């Protein structure tokens, strides 16, 4: 089925034109198909995969697992943020199928590519079944499909995008940020901003109440002040120790860390302090020099060395 043919089917409302081979009676009604076709027309990558054939199935949630490169952090889902979806599925059934592929590892039958929240919700319904639209896609294709879908919704956090990109680059693109950016039409600047979150020091992450609330702007600002000088990075990490256990919001913690780095950068570098004492007719008889690092140098001239009592006297006065 060509791409233009698929669009024609949607335009004409002939949803039966899609190849459908249910494993069992699906129970997916016309509204569900309409919802899936809406996904296809707004997601070119999904449309391309759908051209190879779409199979609608109703399966047990126990036969499914999330595709490992899904960018929504599953552990962040709870009844608190998914209750309305669970109740809706219980009452009206699952109107929109998730998009899945065969699990290439064999650990489960299917991997969920799109529909993490729906998968979570279906796991918490009495039926514990889920409607899936089964497509054929490799990891790179699956990633493009997922990104296109999430760009349409734009409801994943910067933290989820950042951590996902870091893992995908390492495991799908063999560590090549350039290939990742080129193949997914992502600007290198955008990726760099995400990495400001993904590459945060573990000790900083430990004091942030919720990484899901960290913005790209905050993360890039913190990275900038820490990279200016060793002293600013030290100041930030020192502040981290002070904030451990503090009851503060994510925004307040980030603001405090950025300020610590900026304050350290504003401190003027103190030049070496030098004091000379005249002894034995030599105006530079004893010279005491203290570097900015705290290192101390004492020079005694030949003329002054003949009068050890005078040398001891001026040094005692200097350090008193």
Structural key phrases:
Conserved hypothetical protein from pyrococcus furiosus pfu- 392566-001, ParB domain; 5-stranded mixed beta sheet; elongated; disordered N terminus; 3-stranded antiparallel beta sheet; 320 residues; single chain; 52% helix; alpha/beta
The overall average pLDDT, rounded, is: 81
The helix tally amounts to 15
Instruction: Indicate the overall shape.
Output: elongated
For CATH, the homologous superfamily of the largest domain is named as Conserved hypothetical protein from pyrococcus furiosus pfu- 392566-001, ParB domain
Structural class, from secondary structure content? alpha/beta
- Low-pLDDT parts are 1-36
Q: What is the CATH topology of the largest domain?
A: Conserved hypothetical protein from pyrococcus furiosus pfu- 392566-001, ParB domain
Roughly what percent helix? 40-55%
Strand order of the largest sheet: 1-5-3-4-2
Strand content: 5-15%
What is the CATH architecture term of the largest domain?
A: Alpha-Beta Complex
Radius of gyration (Å): 32 Å
CATH class of the largest domain: Alpha Beta
Number of domains: 4
Amino- and carboxy-terminal Cα gap: 92 Å
Count of extended strands? 8
Q: Write down the secondary-structure element order.
A: HHHEEHEEHEHHHHHHHHEEEHH
Q: Could you describe the largest sheet, including whether it forms a barrel?
A: 5 strands, mixed
Break the fold down into its secondary structure elements and pairings:
Blueprint: H1 3-12, H2 30-42, H3 44-50, E1 55-60, E2 64-66, H4 79-92, E3 98-102, E4 110-114, H5 116-123, E5 129-134, H6 139-153, H7 158-171, H8 177-184, H9 188-198, H10 202-207, H11 216-228, H12 230-243, H13 250-266, E6 273-279, E7 282-290, E8 296-300, H14 302-305, H15 308-319
Parallel strand pairs: 2-4, 3-5
Antiparallel strand pairs: 1-5, 3-4, 6-7, 7-8
Helix pairs in contact: 2-3, 3-6, 4-5, 7-9, 9-11, 11-12, 11-13, 12-13
